[in-house]
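Colleagues,

Please find the record for the three-part complex below.
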Amino acid sequence: MIKHSEININTFKRCQWIDITPQIMHIVSETNIKNGFCIAASLHTTAGITINENADPDVERDFFNILENLVPKLNSYYHTEGNSDSHAKASLVGFSTYIPIKNGKIILGTWQSVYFCEFDGPRNRKISLTILGEN
Amino acid sequence: MIKHSEININTFKRCQWIDITPQIMHIVSETNIKNGFCIAASLHTTAGITINENADPDVERDFFNILENLVPKLNSYYHTEGNSDSHAKASLVGFSTYIPIKNGKIILGTWQSVYFCEFDGPRNRKISLTILGEN
Amino acid sequence: MIKHSEININTFKRCQWIDITPQIMHIVSETNIKNGFCIAASLHTTAGITINENADPDVERDFFNILENLVPKLNSYYHTEGNSDSHAKASLVGFSTYIPIKNGKIILGTWQSVYFCEFDGPRNRKISLTILGEN
């Protein structure tokens, strides 16, 4: 059984991550799939998806400072939209992530959440969610 | 239903990306799978796969300049083949990407294409494509 | 058919990679799945999974030096556990990787192995393995 779904979110800063684990859990539970996995994928080119710590908000602060240090927003890029850094950051972080489903629940490590990573907000964004498995 | 296929390409520069979306669309349509997903994976260690913008070629130029800035090709690495930067760039960008299939068509965002990322060309390269789903 | 399994490993340095290809091959062969794929996922936030060269150990040395250069372990991060670099490195490398299965064997390129990437060891770590396919 394969089900497709979509998560819509609004970001409110240029660079931030948003925990989409609750939405994923909700959609997975509605499918009634007990054993399988799901894949969450960003449908954009300046926003990615990653997994990271859900406990201390300073991890997010450090993460985006580190990325800004690595790939600064500059005016000297060839692409004239002012977001070449965002395109590169998204490819470095990646556009999709995979989560196993067991006994109807998604399997994440104790400290793991799934984060949508905005690198060129604020914007309205879409995440595709594919859930595959058996009842 | 699970089908495996392979895409063969020749790269012609040391570092470049090549849009493999047309090949993926063609192979997916030949499987007759209407609902599912596919995964494209690089079978190399100095070439990865990513998603990025398909409109302005300057995004590619900036992307590879940014990566070259981050991980320069140097002679001072321990690995003596002169491509330690390529190995690192490939791991940073990643080796596979995931694309949903709905109504027989791959689902990508408006500006998204799937790119094979060559970091140590020119070479002949192979991409594995797995398509899973139902008719 | 979908099977979940887990790989447990002990790392012995702060930063290192460990080739988990033999464990993956063993678990895949025990499932009797002949055609399909598997996904290996790190259940942590300071350790990722990648693919890279299995021939010259200097590739690992260069890889971790390059990452340390990009994201140094510093005391000046906001997150006070001393491992903000580890969180960022894991998100850059990614948390999961995908491997096709054909004729009962995993498909990797000639030089490819699957590596668990420890960025904050030594620790006991868990990798989730999902194998999907048909006999």
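The interface with chain C takes residues 2, 4, 39, 41-45, 70-71, 77-81, 84-85, 87-88, 90-92, 94-96, 98, 126, 128, 130, 132 of chain B (CB under 8 Å).

Comments are welcome before we finalize the supplementary table.
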